[in-house]
Amino acid sequence: MDAGEATVTDTQQFYADLVMRHSSDGVIISDPDRKALWVNPAFIAQTGYGLEEIAGQEPGSVLQGRDTDATTGRQIEAACRQRREIRVDILNYTKSGAAFWVDLKVTPVYDSGGRHTHFISTMRDITERKMLEDQNEEMRHAEALRQSERQLLALTSEWLYSAKSFDELLMVIKRAMHTLIPEAEGALYIYDTSRTMLELVTSWGTMPAFAGHILPDECWALRRGRAYAYGLKPIEFVCDHVDKPGMPYFCLPIIAHGETIGLMHIVFDGFEEGGLTRHMRNDVLRNRWDISLICGEQISLAVANVRLRQELQEKSVRDPLTGLWNRRWFMEHALREVTMAEREGRDLALISLDVDHFKQFNDRFGHEIGDMVLKDVGQVLARAAGKTVAPCRLGGEEFVLLCADHDENAAYAQAEKLRIAISESTLSASGQALPAITVSAGLGVFGRDGTVLEDIMKAADLALYRAKAEGRNCVMAHAGPDARKPAR
């Protein structure tokens, strides 16, 4: 080697030493068995380990720890056995036990004869990048959770507003609240008719049964007129209706048409102080508080919607004068009962009933008194109402009773009972007693008179006409020659 070549070689070595010593990346040179031979100053700064502490050891055995991914470690081992380059992200630990992430590149080195002589490992600290990635992942996860919650809330809202009845609405509330806030148990209370207490109408979760009723002044939310969360503020007081004071809970008034009609009570069993770290506990509770407020508003709107729908439905099928079911309701339910009677072999009868001499009564005393008579008859019929007897006003002085599970004898007995009760009723106007009210009635029986509603109604009407022809104030079972004689 001449002087010029020596100068070039020395210069290259000088620059190589500069790079190795002043690089910010940690560098380890190992033998073919992966035993450490040399480390640069950046490695010592990164890990806290000097050459004397790592020399002769496989670097991974010193740097890897309890949370290092074992699969990544095996990938490095496999690459080194096969003498191929590998680059991975891996969690290492410093001498003091602090975790840090590195972008690790392990490269096999060969001499001019192709013999494997060394491994060179470079470690670039990427802890900050990993933290940002983890934060972004948490943000993506949190956004995915919020998106899922929004979708569940939208779905819940759709089901709530689709409920046709209060019972259906309670079913949706129970299922939705258990899905939206699975960590909590809950109950829904509604004011009784006197508004002196709130009665339990449904509950969800795994807690023992909630109290069957609570008083309005036992709840801070009802007393203050707004939703109340216990377990999140430095100054707070337990509601009197709560049995376990240590548990966080929410109380949310349910409002329909501007009036407080109930209370939703949500309890977080297991969230007492010490059950979770305060940070985790408060984060979960604040998230669930926001969801609960939205649910409370949606449930309030849904209750108001169901109530309005029921009121409109009730008005559409009720006779405004007597409060009995009207013709529309009768036709719908009578057709259904006829179908059930035919399908299941059940008894069914109709009682067609008419106020005797109503026109004369109306003409003599006036329409106001006529309406009073119809209301009185309606009240007598309403008292007979039940699961199997449905009194209806078809129009004018014409009434009909839909009698499910009634054969001819049972229907006849029911009609006689009503006829007598109406005849014993007394009315007065302007201090004067009015003439006695009497009715005539006719029966139509499923099977005997037909299996089609029109045929049964026609038979009942014919029997009614027969009762009027026989002198009124009586019941006829049917219009044939063997019809029952008038009751006297």
From TrEMBL:
The protein's Enzyme Commission number: 2.7.7.65
GO MF, one annotated term: diguanylate cyclase activity
Residues annotated as domain GGDEF: 346-480
PAC domain segment(s): 84-138
Sequence ranges assigned to domain PAS in this UniProt record: 11-57
Gene Ontology BP terms: cell adhesion involved in single-species biofilm formation; negative regulation of bacterial-type flagellum-dependent cell motility
GO cellular component: plasma membrane
Catalytic activity entry: 2 GTP = 3',3'-c-di-GMP + 2 diphosphate
A Pfam family of this chain: GGDEF
NCBIfam families for this protein: GGDEF, sensory_box
PANTHER family hit by this protein: DIGUANYLATE CYCLASE DGCM-RELATED, REGULATORY COMPONENTS OF SENSORY TRANSDUCTION SYSTEM
Protein name: diguanylate cyclase
